[in-house]
Amino acid sequence: MDNSKRYERLLERYNNGDLSRRSFLGLIGAAGLAYGVATPYARNALAATEQVRFDGWGGVVSEAFRKYAFDPYTKKTGIKVVDGTFGSGDEYISRIKASQPGEYNIAHLSGVFDYARYNNLGLTSELNEKNIPNLEFVIPKLTNVFRKVTDGTLSCVPYDYGTTGIAYNRKHISDEEAKEKGAKLLIDEKLKGKLGAWGDWRTRIWYGSLQTGQDPNNATDMDAVWDAIRTNRDLLLKYWSSGAELMSLLAEEEIYATEAWSGRVYALQEQGHDIGYMDPPNGFGWQECLFVIKGSPMEACEELLNFMLAPETSIAVAEGQNYPPALDPKKVELGEKIPKLPAFDPTGTLDGLTFADPTYWNDHEQEWSKQFGRIQKGY
Questions:
Q1: What is the pLDDT of residue 100?
Q2: For the chain, how big is the Rg over CA atoms in Å?
Q3: 8 or 67, which is more confident?
Q4: SS3 category, 53
Q5: Are 92 and 58 in contact (CB under 8 A)?
Q6: Which residue, 94, 175, 279, 373, is most buried by CB atoms nearer than 10 A?
Q7: How much is the pLDDT for 111?
Q8: How far apart are the first and last CA of the chain?
Q9: Does residue 154 share a domain with residue 291?
């Protein structure tokens, strides 16, 4: 029997469930030793046994990825997607630093500043864009900002965007009051013990800048920002650390107001909770990407990224997680729900969102993250 037929039969038996993964790899290895070559069939067979690890934000976001992307992808390709979660970008990057090459593969990262951090640590890969033809459907602005960091290449694909605005319980705070007070709603003395906040140093400094009338991408009076952060801290019930916790605090009415992620608030509204949402001027806009970490199985990752960027997949995930997809609305018909989501831009220009300047924030990361850590502990 020639090599082609042997590999085809082995692959067919594996895909039919007649061979375990271990037995399949053993037979492939034996065939390789016997014939001394790795034919295209062998490469395809080995690819079919690969798995890809994906880490994201948990809760409704991870549920949407699993239901609408990972399970259909595995059914189509045979490649298993193992998914994990994290509560913050800082927590996840600490895991990556302590890991072995190839242990982590794709991460659902937030912000170009995270992309720049990974690049500075030598953790970027280089995607073969020919293997990701669905990139053509992505809003150009979202892709170009990443190319600037990695000299024209990509280590990620943009996937969704949203805002970190202000959520409030309409039983206790009217739309008019929320709009009038804006970011200062989160330092309102009358809400002491009924406020929440994300324990993320960037978000705290962004809102501290807004509360002191400063440009969040160029604050000139950091003493005032730190004072605003302390004021907010002293009024809090607690700092929350995940989207699931955010939703629980609002749903159970343990808190009446907090800054919040737009998609999580929309999910609460869908569940029938009377939660309002607003983006104050210069509110925190962000985009998220699917980042491939250096040392990952590139072809399998690229195939998964292309599958996830397919309009039918991307739209289904967006409707499931309640964040607008990175797809260009001028190129793709996005259906009925997505145009109703918070932060959605029908023009595809995203000119109405304020994004974090990666250089500004990364240059101050070490100093500011430590200072917020001290304030968080009560200093």
A1: 92
A2: 23
A3: 67
A4: strand
A5: no
A6: 279
A7: 82
A8: 75
A9: yes
Tell me the C-alpha to C-alpha distance, in Å, between residue 155 and each of 124, 194, 325, 327: 6, 41, 19, 18
Distance CA 332, CA 41 (A): 36
Q: What are the residues whose beta carbons fall under 8 Å from the beta carbon of 74, sequence distance 6 or more?
A: 80, 81
Tell me the average pLDDT across 179-184.
97
Residue 149 is predicted with a pLDDT of: 94
The full length of the chain comes to 379
Average pLDDT over residues 82-105: 92
> Closest Cα partner for 52 from 123, 129, 106, 128?
106
| Nearest Cα residue to 71 out of 319, 362, 364, 307 | 307
Q: What is the DSSP string of 280-296?
A: -TT-EEEEEEEEEBTTS
> Cα(141)–Cα(136) distance, rounded to whole angstroms?
12
Residue 27 has pLDDT above 70, yes or no: no
pLDDT above 70: percentage of residues in the chain = 87
279 and 169 part of one domain? yes
Residues 211, 118 within the same domain: no
Euclidean distance between CA atoms 71 and 342, whole angstroms: 27
Query: 285 or 89: which carries more pLDDT confidence?
Result: 285
Residue 270's CB is within 10 A of a number of other CB atoms, namely 11
Of the residues 283, 308, 335, which one is the last residue of a structural domain? Answer: 283
Which residue range forms the structural domain that includes residue 263?
A: 162-283
**151 in a domain, yes or no?**
yes
Q: Are residues 155 and 298 in the same domain?
A: yes
| DSSP-based three-state secondary structure for 108 | strand
